[in-house]
Amino acid sequence: MQRTAVIWVIYSLTHSASMIGFAVFAQQFPSFLLSLFGGVVADRYDRYKILLVTQTASMIQAILLAALILTSHYVIWEILTLSAVLGIINAFDVPARQPMILELIENKDDLANAISLNSGMVNIARMVGPALSGIVLQKFGAGICFSLNAVSFIAVITSLLLMKFPKFNPPAVKKKITSELAEGFKYIRETPVISMIMLVLVSLSLFVLPYDTTEPIFAKVVYKGNATTYGYISSCVGLGAILGSLLLASVKKGTDLKAILIGSIVVLGTGLILFSRVSYLPLALPFAVIIGLGSLTPMSTCITIIQMETVTNMRGRVMSYMAMSFFGVLPIGSLLIGTISQKIGAPLTMFFQGIIALIIALVFFKLFKKGKIAQKEDGPSMAAEIIESEKIN
Q1: What is the C-alpha separation between 107 and 54, in angstroms, rounded?
Q2: pLDDT digits 0-9 by tens, 143-184
Q3: How wide is the angle at C-alpha 302 spanned by C-alphas 267 and 217, nearest 5°?
Q4: CA of 269: how far to CAs of 157, 266, 305, 359, in Å?
């Protein structure tokens, strides 16, 4: 609800596609700057306690944003500043939170299903939240949206307090942060499957995933609608993401996750192309579902592959590099897409994004196929061997 309301408020005040991109940039670029440091913190300290701190800080940020809007004394820079604060919080939240999923799973074969179900839970909120946000925005205003978000953190923090995790054992030797970061980068570089997945994330984040920058423009300009219209579009995308998560959660052991990754990118590209060509909202909404089906599945699949291929003591740092690949490039992509959309219009921009998605799928399909042959010749990677030994133990 907060994300939908922030974007809508900024677009309503400025009527600028470029400013939407800048708003996304303000929230996510701090995560890029600090995510590597957040990964080191996640490997050094108790991730459960880190998460309690970050979620409490997120609640405070939500309260401040709600108070700002409700008092009606706000300007763009204040909203952007609070968005940047949330980006700083996420830089420490994501590297600590993602590896905790693995700690909750006793049988590591269930990891892909667990991550998918977790994504499904998030995507249910992603479907319901924008629709609810659109209705509340139209009836009661942005202040109520932000207030509801602030109150929701009571449930988040309560849930965390009820969870039980294994006792944290701090590393015996703490190296310099630069040394730990260098070790993480070297590990990724020497593990081809992880570095390849990082390249997929960078490519999608720069050219394809910022499609949501154009959604409010479609709602207001193409479909002549309002905040409710924007909420319906975002909710249909969320519905597709739920379906994608459930499909990913149902995959059987031994399924080639790289094939699912490539297939989901093809689905995403197809959805973007079809959605961009339709100017009648009821006909466009099914294509929004297709976009959602292909948009979150690549991210969930990438996280699963990285988690399975990464050794335990490197997991926090590798996840921080993954977060950097996503949060670092996505805001730049949002600026790029917002600027292009301002020049050539949202429909044509989204159409080209769909074409680029199909090109990315083709390129990495060939690269993965080539890497598979090489792996057969060279034998299993060190990461795979360590994972197998962990399963046996």
Answers
A1: 28
A2: 999 999 999 999 999 999 998 877 877 766 666 777 877 888
A3: 50
A4: 37, 5, 22, 9
DSSP alpha helix (H) spans, 190-314: 192-207, 215-217, 227-249, 257-276, 281-309
pTM to 2 decimals? 0.73
CB-based contact 318:201 (threshold 8 Å): no
Cα(325)–Cα(323) distance, integer angstroms: 5
Q: What's the token pair of residue 96?
A: 């600590």
The identity of residue 108, as a single letter, is K
The torsion of the CA quartet 330, 180, 47, 241, rounded to 10 degrees, works out to 30
Give the whole-angstrom CA distance, residue 160 versus residue 290: 33
Report the percent of the chain where pLDDT is more than 70. 92
Quote the mean pLDDT of the chain: 84
| 8 A C-beta contact, residue 282 and residue 291 | no
The amino acid present at 378, given as its one-letter code, is D
User: For the CA atoms of 259, 204, 234, 302, what is the dihedral angle to 10 degrees?
Assistant: 40
CA distance 219 to 221: 6
Residue 177 CB-half CA count within 13 A: 9
Mean pLDDT (whole number) for 334-353: 93
Looking at 105-141, list the stretches that DSSP marks H as alpha helix, in order from N- to C-terminal side: 111-139
Non-local CB neighbours of 189 within 8 Å, separated by 6+ positions? 195
Architecture of domain 2-161+177-392: Up-down Bundle (1.20)
Give the distance between the most distant pair of CA atoms in the chain: 66
Burial of 310 per CB tally in 10 Å (0-12, 13-18, 19+): buried
Q: What is the reported pLDDT for 327?
A: 67
- Residue 253 and residue 263: Cα distance in Å, rounded? 18
The CA distance from 194 to 303, in Å, is 10
- CA-nearest of 203, 212, 232, 237 to 346 is 212
Dihedral angle of Cα 378, 383, 389, 393, to the nearest 10 degrees: -170
pLDDT tens profile 261-300: 999 999 999 999 999 999 999 999 999 999 998 987 788 7
First to last CA, the chain: 44
